[in-house]
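Risk register update: the risk of archive-format incompatibility is retired. Evidence:
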Amino acid sequence: LIGVGIGVACRDRTIAFASTFACFLSRAFDNLRMGVISQTNLNVMGSHCGVSIGEDGPSQMALEDLAMFQSLPGCTVFYPTDAVAMERATELAANTRGITFIRASRPALPVIYKNEEQFQIGKAKIVKQSANDQVLVIGAGVTLYEAVKAAEQLAATGVNIRVMDPFTIKPLDWAAVQNHSAACGGRVVTVEDHYPEGGLGDAVLASLATVRNTVVKKLAVNAVPRSGPPAELLEMFGISASHIVRACNDI
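Archived output:
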């Protein structure tokens, strides 16, 4: 699949998209690595990411895909949250040189952006904020919705949090992360449907590595998962709204 995609994209003969379950892309990593060296222009769509795919089980759950694609020099990594963001990501990918990766979730998630919303590579969105936010929570895909739920639960107890949608993980919007982190007292929680290594949390940590007086708490899938209903798996592996609430109170 990936080899054919690289071939048809050779010499800009076409704008190629290769799409499959993201978990299967690990076996194509050598093609992608060599594609970087040969300066290929290939767009890759990886679906069925994370424990949120539910009953299909761990063999089908992509939990290392962000780490894999972030390791490729020059690769642009999109993580759109809803259908509008996905359409914009696809359009931007088609017009971006080099390898791009679009991470797609399986659950039927509500649309949060208006059709006319503008997106840019390397520019984050703030989906919830107030003048007295105490924690910046950064999530993408299914975990962004969990973050919004957590924000509503925390607001009922008098705690306000700011919720950020990064849109692209690579390049990450360093300026937005740093500025909004400072506005929230240097307290940051990241939550991702991915293993802890090489994902959203590590990208955020890199952006804040030289920023003083900042604390980052990462929530991620920290064990080999199992099959089950999506909501139960989000809870079991520590990335549900209740875990976000706990992390915000702890930090």
